[in-house]
């Protein structure tokens, strides 16, 4: 299972939407400048995981005031680091700089925001009821500075 999480300064409500193939979303123009807002980072992470599974906004589960963004894509297939690399390339197209690449995670940076991507297999014995129909996940997480805008 891969997880990408981003944090922000204000709490939000968790949402889940099914993944729909959309070439326009994956090629949307990058968010401006190095000093991205929490909303821009959230949009970047959403686009990065496009077509890789059902999107879940995990921000409502974060502590209020956390300057972080967190999301995941749940898939009916096992997601691999190749999927995480695709998401990383999409973030690079939106202005993110590639950082350390490890066998299990990919780090990126945009201004004061730091993101981590991971693809994970959801094993049958570890599936909670909400994860039961899924075999893989992409986790997207970012932490940064929310005080600028």
Fraction of residues in H or I helices: 10-25%
Q: Look at the structure and give the mean pLDDT.
A: 79
Low-confidence stretches: 1-28
Rg is 14 Å
What's the tally of helices? 3
Instruction: Profile the largest sheet.
Output: 8 strands, mixed
Number of E strands: 8
Shape: globular
- As a percent range, the share of strand residues is 25-35%
Structural class call reads alpha+beta
Give the N-to-C terminal Cα separation: 33 Å
Give helix and strand order, one letter per element, not per position: EEHHEEHEEEE
**Count of all domains:** 1
Biased composition (Low complexity): 10-23
Region (Disordered): 1-37
What does this structure look like?
The protein has 149 residues and is an alpha+beta fold. Helix content is 19%, strand content 30%. It has one domain. Helix 2 crosses helix 3. The termini are far apart. The N terminus is likely disordered.
Which key terms come to mind for this protein?
about 150 residues, alpha+beta, single chain
Give the SSE layout.
Layout: E1 3-6, E2 16-17, H1 23-26, H2 38-48, E3 54-57, E4 68-75, H3 81-93, E5 97-101, E6 106-110, E7 113-121, E8 136-143
Parallel strand pairs: 1-8
Antiparallel strand pairs: 1-4, 2-3, 3-4, 4-8, 5-6, 6-7, 7-8
Quick synopsis:
The chain is α+β, with helices and mostly antiparallel strands and 149 residues long. The protein has helices at 23-26, 38-48, 81-93; strands at residues 3-6, 16-17, 54-57, 68-75, 97-101, 106-110, 113-121, 136-143.
